[in-house]
Amino acid sequence: MLTDLFLTLCISTALTAVQAENRCSVDAKNGYKVRLSIKTALGNKAYPWDDSEMFLFRATLAFAMRVYTKSDQYNVSSVHVCDETPRVSFWFVVSNDTELVSAEDVEKAVRISRNRINSAFMLTDQTLEFVNIPPTLVAPVQPGTPPWLIVFGVVISAVCAGVVMLLLSSFVQKRRKKGILEDENEEERCEKQNGATHEVQEGSDDFNQIFVEASSSTKL
Amino acid sequence: MEADGRPSWDNPAQFILACVSYAVGLGNMWRFPYLCQMHGGGGFLIPYLIMLVLEGIPLFYMELAVGQKMRLGSIGAWSAISPYLGGLGIASVVTSLYLCIYYNVVIAWAFWYLFHSFQAELPWAACPANNNLTEQQECEVSSPTQYFWYRETLNITSSMEEGGGLHRGQTVCLLMAWVVVYLCIVKGVKSTGKVVYFTTAFPYVVLLIYFIRGVSLHGAANGIKYMFMPKMKELASPTTWINAATQIFFSLGLGFGSLVAFASYNQPHNDVQRQAVAVSLINSGTSIFASVVTFSIYGFKATFNYESCLDRARINLLNSFDIEEDAITNDNISSWVTQLNSTYPDRFASLSQQLESCNLESELDTAAEGAGLAFIVYSEAIKNMPVSQLWSVLYFSMLLMLGVGSMLGNVMAITTPLHDSKFLSRRLSSEALNGLVCIFCLLAGLGFTARSGNYWFTIFNDYACTFSLLFIVFVEMVGICCIYGLKRFEKDIEDMIGHRPNWYWKIVWAGVGPIILIGLFLFYMITYITGETSTYQAWDKDLGKSLPKERPPYAQVCIALLPLSSILCIPFCAFYEYVQRKKKREPEERVVSCPLTPREAC
């Protein structure tokens, strides 16, 4: 009787295992197709795809399921693979003891741990494709100030400084010109004295400068 | 400073550089290569050079000679030629005003792209992620460069009627553009004369660097071969010749009054004839050089796209038939296609819709001009180059310098006549006057930074200046030859440079030139009347491409008003002058007064 029980147990586990494996097929309802492009990604350093690599894949997928469900019910044996092609593509399904895990849960698990799965194989989102699972784009880094504003600020401050300097210099020049003209006007004002006096400047010839200046400005 | 107190260039080199900087502008970069491509590649050079000789150089010389002789801006100079032609100067100033208002927007765009080049990854290199961390719909349907241009730079609305608000980034860039222009013209000729050294030299340096980079790019040879392969049958079509004449005319910047303004600051005996020929030839030479660079970039982009297309097809085949990865390469793809078609015909048939046919010729045939070429096509090519940030900074700085160089001439065309007017120059200093012009143009140009601004920009770009300039230059030639007298003009030139112009100049001024201009003017009138102005290209964000839409009636009115407002100045002023003369019966009496100076009063 014990052997009968043992036999039925063996047969039932074998059957469920076969069932799970049978549920992995092309276009399986809860399965996904995976496609690897190792030669595109790594070129000369490409590693050949063999059973050990497949084992690693199943292990990382089990890891992803564990992270997602926060339980340790998943093992390498939970992941079933079929329809391997020379392209290096295959289908997989994940089973949870007896039944298959739904497609949505598998997708979420893969998306969360996508980075870890990729790095296990030194591949990227584009070279390790899970068909129908969109890649998770990196969240855009939003810097506090957009960088273009910084460059803009620097350039416009420099340009405004240039404008202000030019305006100031022409203003100062005009002031100076006005100052010289005023000085000349003061010197031309005649003083009611005997003859016109004028301070003799240093280095000048010994004659009264005022007559020289008067002659050049007399309007005729 | 001259004896009459007019400021002048420090040396003749500054004048030549200013003219070169003004004439060599964005049109050389983005219009000429397009025309070359559309009209038979190398063969287009034939009508182009013929028109240069028949129309370009003589008209250029004529405007410079008028400016140098009269030593006044366009209003004063043409009034001196004949009092009835004062309106000609005013028409030039109005046209220059329209140009200043819309042209600086291009510089604002160049600034925007330049500032955005200082990032680790160019923002137009890839589609930005949206909130779901998936790609933006609009970006996926079009392309990252188009998305960046239409959505992030312009934030364009889907039609002209929807105004949208002002785009803040564009507004500050436009402000920046005007501050830079003000910095260059604030002291008139003295500041402009120094700036033109840089605005002229820098674009050539960048073009040379790009030339070296461009011809060494993978696939550049395809583009250059395509350009230089002449398709002679294009020469039989009249459109080719019309486009050549138009391109020469607008490329040299005739009719705006800028050349008159520049030449008015010359020394009286400057050899303007030799300089005119030199500048015209430099301008055309630059166009040809720029188109070689552009075509090498085109070739690179087309080859890149073609190879990407082949790659996509290859991956498609690999994935559908699960063949080993390196079995299909870009070279043997066609043999694989035939093999797979014969082995799995039905599977292949279902796949064939997805398999795009890749054709290098059709990639090279996609021609673009204008802002589309400069900002979309070029930035797409640049993002695929190694060290793309450097090339991007160089390229947009070059566009900036080309634009600023042309703007200097355009703004001086407005400020020079204003300075000449005693009324204004007595009340305002020249810095204040220049500042007012800049502020006015800035405020008027804010409309182009609105979300629908690009549609209005296209209207201004296509219609604000084209008719008016043809008419203005035609009246200039008639004015010189008939009203002023060709003999008198010859004598003026002899006074300036020491010898009379020879028969070639006279034939063009008196005969060939006006005929060509009338022909162009009639052609554009006919194009306008036959209704080609009634639709415009509006960006559809769901489909990711531009579709034609009807222009609203107020836009059509605007298109009509723009050239009319400047052309009508000419007859109005002539009529006004005629009426004034009829009123004045007695000549003015000259009153001689000798006010007593304080010194004499003592």
UniProtKB/TrEMBL annotation, chain A:
Its main location: membrane. Residues 28-220 form the Collectrin-like domain. Residues 1-20 form the signal peptide. GO terms for cellular component: extracellular exosome; plasma membrane. Keywords: Cell membrane, Glycoprotein, Membrane, Phosphoprotein, Signal, Transmembrane, Transmembrane helix. It holds the Pfam family Collectrin. The keyword Cell inner membrane does not apply. GO terms for biological process: positive regulation of amino acid transport. It is found in: Cell membrane. The chain crosses the membrane at residues 148-168. It is a single-pass type I membrane protein. Residues 182-206 are annotated as: Disordered. This is Collectrin, amino acid transport regulator.
From TrEMBL, chain B:
One of its GO terms (molecular function) is L-proline transmembrane transporter activity. Signal peptide: none annotated. The keyword Transmembrane applies. The chain crosses the membrane at residues 12-32, 44-64, 85-115, 169-189, 201-221, 241-265, 277-298, 393-411, 432-451, 463-486, 507-529, 554-576. GO terms for biological process: glycine transport; L-proline import across plasma membrane. InterPro entries: Na/ntran_symport, Neutral_aa_SLC6, SNS_sf. GO terms for cellular component: apical plasma membrane. This is Transporter. It comes from Paramormyrops kingsleyae.
